[in-house]
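Quick check before the chapter quiz. The format below is the same one you will see on the exam, so make sure you can read both the input and the output lines.
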Amino acid sequence: MEDSNMTKVTEFILLGFSNFQELQLLLFSVILLTYIICVTCNIAIIVLVKTDNSLHTPMYFFISNFAILEVMFVSVAIPKLLTSLISSDKKISFSSCFLQLYFFHALGATECCLLAVMAFDRDLAINNPLRYSALMTNEFCIGLSLFPWFVGFTVASILTIFTARLEFCGHNVLNHFLCDMAPLQNLACSNPYFSNMITSTAAVVLVIFPFFIIMGFYIHIIITISRIKSTEGKRKAFSTCSSHLTVSSLFYSSVIVVYIRPKGSKYDKYLAIIYTVIIPVINPFIYTLRNKDVRTTLIKSIRQLFSLNLD
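Here is the expected output.
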């Protein structure tokens, strides 16, 4: 018989990093700084790509899309984490929790697919340089950029619905700093097996599959680059891909560990810090400091700004 005393959960408690009480202020300061840097740098990339005609190419169009995505992605998780670090109130309402769950996974899934699209763009540019401009039209670019958003938000809605349909009663403490799939499913009073399997299947489709697609594109790219006789040609070809390859490797290495296992673990929140805080703040520097075109445009814009101020 079902226990009539079971209380339906109306809110959850996010433990976050409350086991490090003496480090709360330090963590808050560091994470706030990384959040500000991440948002500022990505907005700078968006503005640079929008305003400078020399950056109006498919590659930078996708980079600016990625920058928009990064700003949204970090803004879903980090503000709540910052609040919990300086407040004794660790609660989040049931609806807010599932809203965060939805947008976090929708944007995360979109990022997985967008990285694969960006790898396709680089492969097309290097292996079909003469036909690249004709193939990569504005309409095709827009279609390619919208596809990851459609897939990400559609799949996330399915995952969120299946998780929200579970019964939550009594236990409401999440050993995490955000509402994530595995911790929530493991709190359910009803059997989460089917929901776990849906999550694992989606992880394979949206994480493993794009990862292998990216690796396939880069194997193809490396083979092509190895055939280039000129050392300068090889360097130039690889420099256009190295930034994206670095970003993809950092992102997928942490995400695969967390989401391929349906049960989750107590270490997931520490791994989540890598792809919600550390990697997003590194990405703009990888794209700007290692990219000659963006670097040149940034320096030119700063000089123009200073000359205007002096005038």
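If your answer matched, good. The two ends are 81 Å apart (CA to CA).
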